[in-house]
From TrEMBL:
Gene3D superfamilies: CBS-domain. InterPro entries: CBS_dom, CBS_dom_sf, Diverse_CBS-Domain. The keyword Repeat applies. PROSITE patterns: CBS (PS51371). Residues 75-132 form the CBS domain. It comes from the Archaea. PANTHER family: CBS DOMAIN-CONTAINING PROTEIN, CBS DOMAIN-CONTAINING PROTEIN CBSX3, MITOCHONDRIAL. It comes from Methanocaldococcus villosus KIN24-T80. Keywords: CBS domain, Repeat. This is Signal transduction protein.
Length: 162
């Protein structure tokens, strides 16, 4: 069985802000924390997110003032979640398929406990490659041992005992 790295190992704590925080403040948080998005708790207690694309498309391009626009005014309900035990390889596929830069990690109860980003996945990729390389080498050793055993068995001559 392939040893996998669960997203739980590489996740970081998500940044959560209230819906009344201004865009200029969350942009600074995103830069300081090196994260592509923040979670937003709206007045109705629903959770959405604001990412770089939201800020560019809904504030910058429209020439709105980031100091005046609130996070809940531009937040998006598109939050893609994965279970904490999801293998990183599978998370990479989910990110690619959904064209997102982050996934939110949930516990057994569905509560968001973390997030992973493209950068987190890229940073762990060498470990995944090393794990796969080790597995392949181990399998090749087993194949060699089996082939050696077969050769030995063919060389054995059985002499009947009376």
């Amino acid at each position: 069985m392939v040893a996998t790295i669960p997203v739980l190992v590489i996740m970081k704590k998500p940044v959560i802000v209230s819906g009344d925080v201004s865009i200029d403040k969350i942009a600074k948080i995103m830069i300081d924390e090196n994260i592509p998005c923040v979670l937003v708790i709206k007045k109705d207690n629903s959770i959405e997110k604001v990412d770089e694309e939201d800020i560019i498309k809904k504030v910058i391009i429209k020439k709105l003032s980031p100091e005046k626009v609130k996070t809940e005014d531009i937040s998006s309900p598109k939050i893609i979640k994965v279970h904490k035990n999801t293998p990183v390889e599978e998370a990479m596929e989910i990110m690619s398929k959904n064209k997102v830069k982050e996934l939110f990690v949930v516990d057994d109860d569905g509560k968001i406990i973390g997030m992973i980003t493209e950068e987190d996945v890229v940073n762990v990729a060498p470990d995944i490659i090393n794990t796969l390389e080790s597995l392949i080498n181990h399998l090749l050793e087993i194949v060699d041992e089996v082939l050696e055993e077969e050769k030995k068995e063919k060389k054995i001559v059985r002499i009947p005992i009376n």
